[in-house]
Amino acid sequence: MFKTMKRIIRWAGKYQKRLWLGAVFSFFSSFMTAVPTMTAAYALDQAIQAYWRNSRIENTLIWQSLWIIVFSIAFNFLFSYLKAVLQESIGYEVASGQRIHLGDILKRVPLGYFSRNNVGEILTGVTTELSTLELQGMKMVDVIINGYAKFIAILLCFIWFSPAAAFISAAGVILSALALSGISKNSERTAGVTHKSMEAMSSAAIEYIRGLPIVKSFGQEGVSIERFHEASRALKDIHIKIEKGYTPFNCLHLFALKLASMGIVLVCAWQTLQGQISLAYFLMFVLFSFVLFGSVETINEASHTLGVIDSAMDKLESLENVKYIDEDGSDIRPDSCDIVFENVSFGYEAHSTVLKDLNFTIPQNTTTAIVGPSGSGKSTLCNLIARFYDVNSGKITLGGRDLREFTCDSLLKNISMVFQNVYLFRDTIRNNIKFGSPDATEAEIVAAAKAACCHDFIMALPQGYDTIVGESGSSLSGGEKQRISIARAMLKNAPIVILDEATASIDPENEHLIQEAISALTHGKTIIIIAHRLATIEKADQILVIDGGTVAQKGTHEELLRQEGTYRKFIAIREKAEGWRI
Known about the structure:
Blueprint: H1 2-11, H2 16-52, H3 59-87, H4 90-108, H5 112-116, H6 119-161, H7 163-210, H8 212-218, H9 222-273, H10 279-291, H11 294-297, H12 299-320, E1 339-346, E2 355-362, E3 367-371, H13 378-385, E4 393-398, E5 401-402, H14 408-412, E6 415-418, H15 429-434, H16 442-451, H17 455-459, H18 478-492, E7 496-500, H19 508-521, E8 526-530, H20 534-537, E9 542-547, E10 550-555, H21 557-561, H22 566-578
């Protein structure tokens, strides 16, 4: 339990001073809570003694007691307020910074990380785990540190009036702490399983929601809903098992405190009968026996939660300690945009190879088209240029510098990409285009949209450029999304442009406009195009034919047509397909 507390306090980072100062204020607040009761007991004791002496109660005693009670209540509220101001917001402040930090980390890891790790696990770590720490972490510090601080404040009063009662109180809390340790250890053992079940639940839910169009179209519930049901049942069973393991320790914890309360009453009653303490102070101890352990009793839930928090912190640490793809990189500005592949081989898994011993050059300010059968490695080749992955062997250079020498940011400043599967953020169309250049003016945004032939359809939307697109751009057609992504890449105005099937979803009547726009706005740039349309590839300065992970052929359109091989077969198939009519 206390090990996890130390981790939470370390997690607070620069806010630790505020955390400890809040605990000090909590101690004084608790002490001020005890002062009115002790003052009342003292006044009552004086009144009883005056009665037996048959003397009059001094007015000063009444007024002094009143003012002490009033000031102690006021200071109690003041210290409680200061504690809340110092501690309450720490979790939100730390979590906010960590979310941004995790976002930066995920941006810098190789894309292979996302294929090796379940999306549900990553999502749970960034959302559920961090939210658990954000909402519960500081609350647990408050419950445990401040809970024991309140107990210690009243215990000091006990030591002054009755060391025997103080000893019984301390013994009860020590026995309680042993039970709480059992709760915490049990929770730590089961927290990992719980999080695995929650991750499975998240993954199943994501898969089911993403697959709903297929489920509806076939009128079937499918395997995804069965996975969802199974994950729900597993999570339920885990929670029930945890509660069963938690109950015995919780009962022992509460029993120790209740037993200590009874012990305080019995020993103080005996001391009163022996004349060691007065009746007024006996009543004070009886009252304290009911409230003394109130702050400690609630620690049982905290001990249970700490195991979950400990597991959450393990998950977050594993995310934070992931290896950056560019951790050894530097901020480099290349001298040219010549791209050279030297003996490059790559595979997503250790036992498989997608690209084998590639050697070619993409000169600056030229257009290179990459063609080949599906699955031959065309998109993989472009991903390597953008350094989404590092090569397994060989090297890729930009301007004579190995890509592994660059940071991802300094490399990608030189590259604009338009992907085959376009992703638009749930934001305005303006901001989706502006993503390519955050400092772009309105005129530049509109110019890029016009060049990409999307200005007209944007203006026809209800709010024009302020129209909010659905998640992933679901409210737009495939061609509209692709044109917006082209506008985004044009606006970035990087010297290297990678177009991965950028015209695949463009309707025929706009295709020639897009081709003209791309030609005009990529003039003087290094262009890499993955395409199947003849109009896109036949004007390229060089064409790389990728087949089986190797460069099967290389040359211009006319040169390759004169050669027997994959390209001539590819062109024959494309001409037949593009000439087909209903």
